[in-house]
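Chapter summary example.
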Amino acid sequence: MAVLETHLKAAIEAGKVQRSYPPGARKARDGHHYMPDSNRPGKYLLVVHHG
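The structure predicted for these 51 residues follows.
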């Protein structure tokens, strides 16, 4: 989670208009982006943008 928070904070500070996703995030058929959960092998975390 710390990697995700750091990445999102850097994107906000850079003033990017286009949303960026953390490295390793993949787009699923449902249109959301997910990334592997390192604490639970075989499970995924939903990438959520706050804004």
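To summarize the output: The helical segments are 2-14.
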